[in-house]
């Protein structure tokens, strides 16, 4: 029996298992990039058809926002599932591998999307018990296009009629975390991600006569090494920063001084204050070296994603809820943040919430040696769809129950704060002009691929305790889990 009001178990998800895994396979076969995901949007709309949802689609991107109205009055919470893939040529070897050359769901977003669909089915089945509403946020463009920010601008946080009081998202890991193990932490959980492109302009010439040219290469090289020194002298050892130069180019021949050279870097920081300091320091160091060498420099510094910060109270609530769901051996507090980045950070800048990691390493695979997220060989176990769906549904239901419980003292002293009945506004609310185009989008997409998946969904998930995992597994699991 559930230990917290509104909680779900993997057994509750079994009736939906074949549909959810078929959806996951269909999404995986036809991955899409960026903000325009028409095939994925159609599959999601088809999978939600028939549920008592108020559905809207995005205008600046192919998002789907669905609102489930609870049977009792209360606030709204949000569950996010990102839908986009990566420009990676798949080498996983799975039967449902990508059919789109050069594009792969290498970060598990097909599982995130299917899990939020699963949460919608689970919660709709208990709609009468919900003390409030649930917003389901199906988001394109997580992998660098700021899709969450676009959806916020289009009103997703207020889709239920008032601002959501909490927001939750999960991310599956293809490495380090055994199947079904869950980790989160209060405060910073993921880094801010910035990109830097530096272009140095000199004056070309013959390699034998550098005194007649203005060589950009020494300046370029000095900038790269000086930036590493700057990081060690600027960032607090307990509030670190990472700067990695991943690309450097100059010239085309061994005996020619080029006109220009360029390098590109990623910068990761873990607090807003350090983020500001490092951004200013990068510009100062690069400009100073350019001036010293007599070259002209262009600095394109892009602040991409802010720090992902879990609200301490929501993180504690989420961890307690998940421990009640899966047991204390399979849910733990991560000891430190990781340097991956996420645009769910934009949501958590606006409302309190929590971001959680869920293990998806197939049983029989060594979690420490499994290919990480973003790798062409990354494999995510189907059963993580059910695990993630029950985690998300339980978080939403338990959070609404908590809000209702917290409101009892106020209602006792103020009868007007607790109306006897709530109108059933969701009746017939699922009218969706786009659903006709989507009907059947998932039907038969993975015929035969899910045989036996439902019957083993619980036993396989439960056989991966997290003993000994908490001290060092999250860093590797999450470092490639996001942008």
TrEMBL record:
Transmembrane segments: none annotated. Signal peptide: none annotated. It comes from the Bacteria. InterPro entries: Amidohydrolase, Bact_exopeptidase_dim_dom, Peptidase_M20, Peptidase_M20_dimer. Residues 413-443, 455-483 are annotated as: Disordered. Residues 455-471 have a biased composition (Low complexity). Residues 195-287 form the Peptidase M20 dimerisation domain. It holds the Pfam family Peptidase_M20. This is Amidohydrolase. It comes from Actinoplanes ianthinogenes.
């Amino acid at each position: 029996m559930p230990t917290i009001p509104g909680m779900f178990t993997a057994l509750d998800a079994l009736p939906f298992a074949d549909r959810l895994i078929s959806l996951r396979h269909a999404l995986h076969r036809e991955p899409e990039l960026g903000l325009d995901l028409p095939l994925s949007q159609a599959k999601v709309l088809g999978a939600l058809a028939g549920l008592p949802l108020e559905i809207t689609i995005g205008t600046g991107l192919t998002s789907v926002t669905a609102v489930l109205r609870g049977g009792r009055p209360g606030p709204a919470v949000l569950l996010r599932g990102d839908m986009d893939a990566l420009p990676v040529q798949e080498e996983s070897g799975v039967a449902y591998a990508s059919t789109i050359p050069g594009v792969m769901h290498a970060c598990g977003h097909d599982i995130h999307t299917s899990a939020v669909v699963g949460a919608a089915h689970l919660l709709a089945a208990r709609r009468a018990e919900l003390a409030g509403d649930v917003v389901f946020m199906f988001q394109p463009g997580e992998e660098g296009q700021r899709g969450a920010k676009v959806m916020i601008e289009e009103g997703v946080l207020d889709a239920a009629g008032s601002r959501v009081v909490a927001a939750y998202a999960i991310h599956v890991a293809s490495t380090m975390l055994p199947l079904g193990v869950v980790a989160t932490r209060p405060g910073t959980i993921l880094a801010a991600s910035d990109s830097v492109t530096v272009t140095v302009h000199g004056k070309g010439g013959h390699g034998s006569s550098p005194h007649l040219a203005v060589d950009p290469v020494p300046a370029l090289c000095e900038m790269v090494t000086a930036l590493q020194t700057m990081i060690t002298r600027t960032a607090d050892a307990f509030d670190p920063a990472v700067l990695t130069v991943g690309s450097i180019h100059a010239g085309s021949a061994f005996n020619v001084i080029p006109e220009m050279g360029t390098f590109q870097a990623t910068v990761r920081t873990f607090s807003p204050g350090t983020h500001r300091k490092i951004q200013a320091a990068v510009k100062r160091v690069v400009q100073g070296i350019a001036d010293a060498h007599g070259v002209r420099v262009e600095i394109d510094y892009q602040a991409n994603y802010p720090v992902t910060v879990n609200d301490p109270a929501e993180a504690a609530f989420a961890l307690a809820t998940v421990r009640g769901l899966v047991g204390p051996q399979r849910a733990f507090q991560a000891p430190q943040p990781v340097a991956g980045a996420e645009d769910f950070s934009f949501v958590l800048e606006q409302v309190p919430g929590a971001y959680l990691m869920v293990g998806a390493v197939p049983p029989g695979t060594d979690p420490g040696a499994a290919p990480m997220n973003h790798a062409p060989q990354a494999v995510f176990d189907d059963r993580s769809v059910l695990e993630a769906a029950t985690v998300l549904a339980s978080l939403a239901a338990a959070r609404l129950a908590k809000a209702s419980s917290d409101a009892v003292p106020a209602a006792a002293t103020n009868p007007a704060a607790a109306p006897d009945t709530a109108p059933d506004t969701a009746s017939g609310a699922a009218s969706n002009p786009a659903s006709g185009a989507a009907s059947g989008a998932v039907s038969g997409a993975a015929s035969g691929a899910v045989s036996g998946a439902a019957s083993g969904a619980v036993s396989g998930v439960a056989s991966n305790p997290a003993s000994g995992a908490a001290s060092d597994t999250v860093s590797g699991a999450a470092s490639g889990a996001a942008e």
